[in-house]
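Prompt: I keep going back and forth on a fold encoding question. Comparing notes only helps if you start from a blank page. Show me how you would write down a chain together with its backbone fold. Please set it down just below, with no commentary around it:
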Amino acid sequence: MRIRQMTAEDIPAVAQIEKECFSQPWSEQGFLDGMKDAIFFVAEDPQIAGYIGMYRMPPEGEITNVAVTRKMRKKGCGRELLLRMQQWADEHGIDRIVLEVRSGNEPAIHLYRTCGFEKIGVRKNFYQFPREDADIMEWKRLC
């Protein structure tokens, strides 16, 4: 598996994965617009198997989305993407990363915890379709 920075040419494949994984997916235009203010990485194996995005506001970042195709789940793809983003953050002066995750998404919560994220709060009724709370999680760079 190869992790690399996302390009505009990757957007159709990434948007398709987004549609498979989320009830309110970003559009292709949303990804294109997001690339102005966010950093995205994709995992290839050999096709795009997943992606991660983060808005960057040094010294903080906010994970926008993490998604992996069904075929590549439980094979370390999400973990590799998250670790690469943390490495990028560390190299670019980002000391803290936050994210929201559906409170019932135990596989994602487990992934985030194994990568050093801790739950710091809850946003009530944050998600729709279906309505669900979001756990707010945080990662801090070790000094």
Q: What stands out?
A: The domain at 2-140 is CATH 3.40.630.30 (Aminopeptidase). The chain has a mean pLDDT of 95. Residues 96 and 107 are 22 Å apart (CA to CA). The longest helix spans residues 77-91.
